[in-house]
Amino acid sequence: MPVIEADNLTKSFGKLVAVDHVSFSIEEGEIFGLLGPNGAGKTTIIRMLSTLTRPTEGTATVGGYDIVKDDNGVRKLIGLVSEKIIMYDRLTAKENLWFFGRLYDIPKEIFNKRVDELLGLVQLSNWKNSQVGTFSSGMRQRMNVIRALLNMPAVLLLDEPTLGLDPQSSVEVREFVKKINRENKTTIILTTHMMVEADMLCDRIGIIDHGRIAALDTSTNLKKLVSGADKTILQLEIANLTTNIVSLIQSLECVSSVSQDNTTRIKVHANGDDAFDTIIDVIRAEKGKINSVKNLEPTLEDVFLHITGHEVRDKADQKIPMRRHRHFMPRARVR
Amino acid sequence: MGVKSLVFHSLMVTWKDLMELFRNRMGLIMLVLMPIFMMSMVGFIFPSSTSISHVSVALVNEDEGYGNYPSASAMLIAALEKMNNSTDMMTITNASSLDEVRDMIQRGEVEGGIIIASNFTSSLITGKQGTITIVIDQSNPQMSMLLQTALKEVFEQIGTRMAEQYVQRLPGVDESNSLAIVKPYSVQTEGAVPGHFSYFDFIAPGLMAMTVMMSVMTGLPAAISHEREVGTLDGMMVAPINRLAIILGKTLAQTARGILQGILILALAVVLFGVTIHGSILLIFALLLLGVFSFVGLGVVITSFAKDQETAMMVMMTLMFPMMFLSGVFFPIQQMPWYMQDISKFLPLTYAATALRKVMVLGAGVPMIITELAVLIGFGVVMTTIAVPVFKRAMTR
After folding, report:
1. What's the gap in Å between the CA of B237 and the closest CA on chain A?
2. CATH number (domain holding residue B175)
3. Could you report the per-residue pLDDT of B69-116, keeping only the tens digit for each?
4. pLDDT digits (tens, 9 = 90+) for A109-127
């Protein structure tokens, strides 16, 4: 029996449909990833599953409990790692855990042991009496994760758990998530806009765009969608690359998309057996000097592009071109 | 979830909020300074009595005397100076004419003038009324009002004494009856309770009620919307606790903060400004708590509608100012126009301030403030009934 089951889950904010009839089910012990750009509706799904937001339409159950009718049953089962750090800066690490832990009615003796264990698990034992406000962002995020584990949740919901962390801290958090999953059989659902993260952690990935799940499968199977026999992904180094060459390649019938990495390198997605020859011919005809050609394995990025027809904007400094998407995030309501 | 866990979770929230408050040094300092500033401002700016001191006044004596008779003006001035020496009311400068006095007022050297007419002695001797003119500075109406009142009183006293002396000289008048002939009756004022009262006694209870209730009304929306903004509210919302525990716990913490300020105000009022408390201290705090109860609902409703801290603060400020002035904390309600008096009847702070004043100043007990108590409880029950479902809905948008 699946631990989480979403059935046509829908949430609209006024006229904007943030989550649009989403259905999926997650098995016990699974790590399930929701992959998509900012504003795709990932956070809203997490907030609905964690009872913080009511769905406008549709239902979901967590551990058999309905997220609306049995919200307190759901709350007992879950741990939430929010995008924002749920920690009070002026309280010490221990006081923070104590406060949140007491809200779960865990007996004192068990609780004290667990706090020490959790702090040890993320190497923060020496800091337990320091105020969280003095912590680095990596330490704060580790606190944020263990806070969600206080009640030994059967389901852990992680919303962008590595957002804003340096690569090393990100790796630590990912390792930790894997460890929890392995050791406690905790079902984990996480959202991310980072392809690598989803690829590394998740058993199954739901690609979400514009509030809908566009594809849902294992990473390997998703990639097979792109790397079928007649699919080609080429990385070309052309010494005298011109915009003319790029647009000529783009106009070829067999080419589905072209993206330029830098002044000399382009990446071409193409279909058909003779795609390779056709592209090379075009470049030659334009007197392009080809330095190297690489046949690439598809990444999740390619999968996303293939399925949704556009790229994931996964750089923080990149502006989101479709403004209305911002409203999809509950975060946008706050200043 | 029983009442027990609701109370327990509320207390946890209170503990957390108070820990945060006490760790915030700057906030704590402000918490203490605010009532001190407020009290000093109100206490020193609003005069505690109508007495004035060291007002510079120009004196023009134009009296020409009357033959060999002793100068009446000299007697008057002597009496005036004698009185002034004991009260230090005025600093008297001599001037020569009305014009000079006007000049001096225009130059700001004096605040007013006294002119004794040239025929002062002769009028008195010949059985006519003598004239004393008081010159006032119209650009400073409050001061001239005070000066006018004070001088009139002074001259009337001197006049009465002089008249008494004349009457004594009349044939057939008993010395002991002379005052009764001049002034057939004397007017005395007696308070409902013994002791000397100042404006401060009026304002301290209201200020206390205001501080406590306002701190809850502004503190609650600010605290909840702040937690919503930084995201920590989700941590509580995702725990299997009654949503009421969050408001209840936060209200308790804000109440504790408000009561702390209330105690400070009370202490300052007693120590610095000599306010005496006539009623029971216990009843005072019970009233403060009841005031909080009547206000919490409003705070919760605002919290539910204001999406961020900035909006919440703006709403609070807009509501706070009219409430401050219309509730009769600084000025008596009776001196307001009728429509404002009507508005003030809908503000719980009005009743809390009135009840508190009755208890603190007049030493009233529960039976004397039963109306106010009933109104406060009514306000509280109605507001809470509205607020709880509104809050519950707002929290799961």
Report:
1. 7
2. 3.40.1710.10
3. 888 888 888 888 888 888 788 888 888 888 999 999 898 888 889 998
4. 888 899 998 999 888 999 9
Per the CB < 8 A criterion, the answer to whether A146 and A122 are in contact is yes
The contacts of residue A214 (CB under 8 Å, 6+ apart) are A207, A208, A307, A308
Of B182, B207, B241, the residue at which a domain comes to its end is B182
Q: What is the pLDDT of residue A316?
A: 37
Compute the nearest-CA separation of A116 from chain B (Å).
Answer: 20
Mean pLDDT estimate for chain A: 84
State whether A100 and B310 contact (CB < 8 Å). Answer: no
The pLDDT of residue A230 is 64
Pick A34 or B85 by higher pLDDT.
A34
Lowest-confidence range among A212-216, A306-310, B177-181?
A: A306-310
Q: Tell which of B234, B311, B395 to mutate to test the A interface (max A CBs under 10 Å).
A: B234
**Which residues from chain A sit within 8 angstroms of residue B231, using beta carbons?**
82-86
pTM: 0.74
Residue pLDDT, tens place only, B176-186: 778 888 888 88
Contact criterion met (CB < 8 Å) for B19 and A90: yes
Residues of chain B whose C-beta is under 8 A from some C-beta in A? 1, 5, 8-9, 12, 15-16, 19-20, 23-24, 228-232, 234-241, 307-308, 310, 396-397
Residue count of chain B: 397
Q: How far apart are CA A27 and CA A3, in angstroms?
A: 5
- Across the interface, whether the CB atoms of B20 and A91 are under 8 A apart is answered yes
Fold observed for domain A4-223? Rossmann fold (3.40.50)
Q: Give the residue from chain A lying closest to B246, CA to CA.
A: A103
Residues B118, B232 share a domain: no
Choice among A88-92, B336-340, B392-396 with the minimum mean pLDDT: B392-396
Same domain for B325 and B364, yes or no, is yes
Q: Which residues of B fall within a CB distance of 8 Å from A84?
A: 230-232, 234
Residues of B in contact with A104 (CB under 8 A): 239-240
Residue with more model confidence, A133 or B50 = A133
> Range of B164's domain?
55-182
Residue range B265-287: mean pLDDT, rounded: 85
Same domain flag for B36 and B94: no
A→B contacts (Cβ < 8 Å), by residue, are: 50-54, 72, 75-76, 78, 80, 82-88, 90-91, 95, 99-100, 102-105, 131, 147, 333-335
Q: Which residues of B touch A141 (CB under 8 A)?
A: none
Residues of A in contact with B308 (CB under 8 A): 334-335
Residue B148 scores a pLDDT above 80: yes
Tell me if A103 and B12 make a contact (CB, 8 A cut-off). yes
